[in-house]
Amino acid sequence: MRDGDRHVTRERYEQIIASDRELVGQMQRIQFTIGDHALEIEPMQSDGGAHHAPGEEPFGVNVSLQIYADDLGLSLSTVRSYRFAAHRWPAGRRRHGVSHKVHYILAGIVEDADRFEAIDAPPLDERVQIRRWTTDLAKKYVGQRPDRPETPAQKVAAIHRLADDEEVAAKVATDVLRRPGVAAKVVADDTARHLVNKAQTTQHKTEVVHDLIEDDAVAAQVASDVLRRPEVASRVVADDTARHAVNRAQTDRSRQQAGAFRRQTPAGRTVRRIERTQEFLDLVGACHHFVAACAKTVPQLCGRTLSGDERAVPAQNVARCRATLDWIETAAETGEVDMDDGLARLPRGE
User: Fold this and answer.
1) Where do the domains of the chain lie?
2) 61: left (phi over 0), alpha (psi -120 to 50) or beta
């Protein structure tokens, strides 16, 4: 026991161990005594039979041992284990200081010579660097599963036994996967990764994808790939926000491509010149239509006197026309098409 784990002094601990070892020794003697008596009642025989006195009713082994166990207040399995240990360890071969449990475990060694040799050659307990027998070391020696696992394989097996229940297993998996190092090793296992992916709900899968596509370049590549699937594309366009975003992106992209085409290619520059010529012709045509419309309409006012309210309307429109003509003149002379706030309000009638 480490000092940090102990609530008593080292001296007191040694006193406790010395006293309790005596108790264990007494328990060993009691257990072997019960085993010897069980052997006397039902000796071990290869055919499983029992010695019985002439004229007595023969009892089956388990029946007689059950009666003995009941009279002692013990279970049949306990009495049978004591009996087996007593049979395997004759009185002269039992070792003081080695628990009855260790004797019982090592009783599984079939050959007498191997068994008697083993108990006198305890293995090294690496935890305390002392040669001694413990129940775990005895189980390990005979090839049984130790109570306290030591190797990774033993620990894994112990966890599997404890996590037999699916609810327990799920909780354990959830807890250990919170550790980045564990999660990294799990996803490196193809089978485990595929099973986890298969078990994920739509919400969980969406969350995982969002985590993976935080980078815009990755997100764009993924969106481009999945939108090639007709079913995915149809679901996306059913979402108003997503559809409007796609349409806006398409418009922006078309505008950018058209601008780049006009700026960077010979054909684009030719188109631009044509467009500029068309724009000039459109402006000349607009002026022509204005003059022609006025030339047709104004003469019709001949001999007509307008009221005050009626005169106010043409006056307001004439002001708008003047402002527009000034705008045209400025654009033609300077190439600047922006209007100041006051000028901009007049054509709108403000």
Assistant:
1) 3-144, 305-350
2) alpha
